Each structure stands twice: as C-alpha cells, then as structure tokens.
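retry 2 of 3: previous attempt timed out while embedding heme C. Reduced batch size to 1 and resubmitted. Inputs unchanged:
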Amino acid sequence: MKKLVVTMLLVATAAGTAHAGLKVIGKGDAMRLDPSSFPPVMKENYEVVRVKCIKCHTLERTIVAIQTGVAPISGQPFDRSATKAYGVKMLRKPDSNMSKPEVKASVDLMNFLLAEAER
Ligand code: HEC
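retry 2 succeeded.
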C-alpha cells in the first residue's frame, strides 16, 4: 500500500511538472514567470524583460511563444535560431525604448527559457 501511494505521488508530481523548467504564474495579461530557480544572470535578464518587454504587449506573448515554439502573431517558428531576429525586430519598433544590451539580455533569457521548456 505504501509503495502504491509513493508511486501515485511520483506520477502526480511528474504530471504537475510537465513544463517543469518554466514556472508560469497567472493567466492572460497577468501571465509572468517565477524566476526564483533561475541562475543569477538570468534573474537579471528577466528583470530587463519584465520591465522593457511589456511596453507594447504583455509578457503573455513572449511566454506563449516560448511554451509553444510558435510566435503567436505571425505563426512563425520560435526557436533558438529565431530569438535574435525577434529581439532585433522589437528593438527596431518605434519608441521601443530599448538598448542593444537590453535586447541581448532578452535574447539570452529567451534562449535559456526555450532550453528550460524542453526539459
Ligand atoms: C515598441 C513596442 C514593443 C516592444 C518594446 C516589444 N514589442 Fe514585442 N511586439 C510588438 C508588436 C507591435 C508586435 C506585433 C507583431 C510584430 O510586429 O512582430 C510584437 C510581437 C511580439 C512577439 C510575437 C511575434 C510574432 O511573430 O508572432 C513576441 C514573441 C514579442 N513581441 C516579444 C517581445 C520581447 C521579448 C520584447 C522585449 C525584448 C518585446 N516584444 C518588446 C511591439 C513591441
């Protein structure tokens, strides 16, 4: 009986952590990430994204792209070979109010998150 309970707990834990690497909090416009398990440099990068990448749309757009591997507006692939181009596209938007180092931090974070989401 004890063994069964342990097995059930393990199964439940595994199911609950299907997207283990990506801890998403909230839904819709309030969607954000829990950076508590990020390495320090990624925590800093997340701060940039959390502040800078929500000027024109919410974080949901970025998180959904990472979770699904598909950019939600264009339907184009969103993988590690594409993140830089999306970063540059956002940088070039009028009034993006972003610097190149901030975009690099965002791209680094997205690549890290894509790797995490795959785990
Ligand atoms: C100046 C406004 C602005 C800022 C700042 C901005 N975005 Fe965007 N973003 C847009 C607009 C407008 C779109 C709509 C589609 C397009 O033009 O790509 C978009 C679309 C997207 C998409 C979906 C792209 C697609 O092809 O479906 C992602 C992902 C994204 N943004 C992520 C980010 C990230 C990450 C940052 C911060 C580095 C950011 N955005 C900062 C305006 C902005």
